[in-house]
Design a protein that fits this description.
Bound molecules: zinc ion
Strand order of the largest sheet: 1-6-5-2
Structural class: alpha/beta
Strand content: 5-15%
Radius of gyration: 18 Å
Distance between the termini: 64 Å
Number of helices: 10
Shape: globular
Length: about 250
């Protein structure tokens, strides 16, 4: 006899599948009816600013003009990030915000396969070079309240689509950090310092490996930098970062 919780989860999954059959597919952003699963409608598609070259070779900041594949932005030329390269599928702004927030808070987990495809396109080289993919972890209490880690969903999908191993419990969040919203760059770095650790049981997996770290949104890079530092200290050869979206600040 299956455990009641498992049974309930199974029924829920079966229910979701039935809903997929009965209900027409919906736009990932506005929810209007569309022709196929995992797409944006014709009105939402142009509103999302997908990111591509030319961009900073390190942090992926988009450039107005093409300065060559090795060009760095001012910040990265001044001090290289802890991670080697970061790429994101689209710009996080007022137009794309609800896409991310629905995925994070409103159970639109069905967006994960499409999001992972967009991320794989934006981070093609990073994914090809990766030995394994791993998400930025949520604290267990937040995971309990939210029921899923959106970064882990993306990492699992990327793993499934690319054939790269996704190690969702590679990193642990040791303490609960206050929300980063409203904090400046320095405060964000302080906020996450010491918050992450490599699961000791996963440490052997990591040795001399190139890790592709997955998160939903890159803002100042404080969180992924804290994770990258821990991974490198624990034996990773290099860390790249792939996110669904990133904040793009206008220089000046
Ligand atoms: Zn739409
Ligand atoms: Zn840069």
């Amino acid at each position: 006899m299956a455990h009641p919780a498992l049974l309930a989860a199974g029924l829920r999954r079966a229910g979701n599948r039935m809903l997929d059959i009965v209900l027409p597919p919906r736009c990932l952003k506005c929810g209007t009816t569309v022709d196929s699963v995992g797409v944006l409608c014709a009105r939402c598609w142009p509103a999302v600013a997908f990111l591509a070259a030319p961009q900073c070779a390190a942090c992926g900041l988009p450039f107005e003009i093409d300065l060559g594949p090795a060009a760095l932005c001012g910040a990265c030329a001044g001090e290289r990030p802890v991670f080697e390269r970061a790429r994101a599928a689209f710009r996080y702004d007022d137009d794309s915000k609800d896409l991310v927030l629905r995925f994070k808070h409103a159970d639109r987990t069905d967006s994960a396969p499409a999001f992972a495809r967009w991320m794989a396109r934006a981070g093609e080289g990073l994914l090809a070079d990766a030995d394994l993919v791993a998400p930025v972890p949520l604290h267990w209490l937040r995971l309990f309240m939210r029921r899923y880690n959106q970064a882990a969903l993306l990492a699992s999908e990327l793993g499934r689509q690319s054939g790269k191993p996704a190690v969702n419990d590679l990193l642990l969040r040791r303490r609960r950090t206050p929300s980063q919203g409203g904090l400046g760059a320095l405060a964000r770095h302080r906020n996450v310092a010491g918050a992450f650790a490599v699961d000791p049981r996963r440490r052997p997996l990591l040795q001399d490996k190139r890790v592709l770290l997955i998160d939903d949104v890159l803002t100042t890079g404080a969180t992924v930098s804290a994770c990258a530092s821990v991974l490198l200290r624990s034996g990773a050869r290099a860390v790249d970062v792939l996110t669904l979206a990133r904040v793009v600040r206008i220089a000046g």
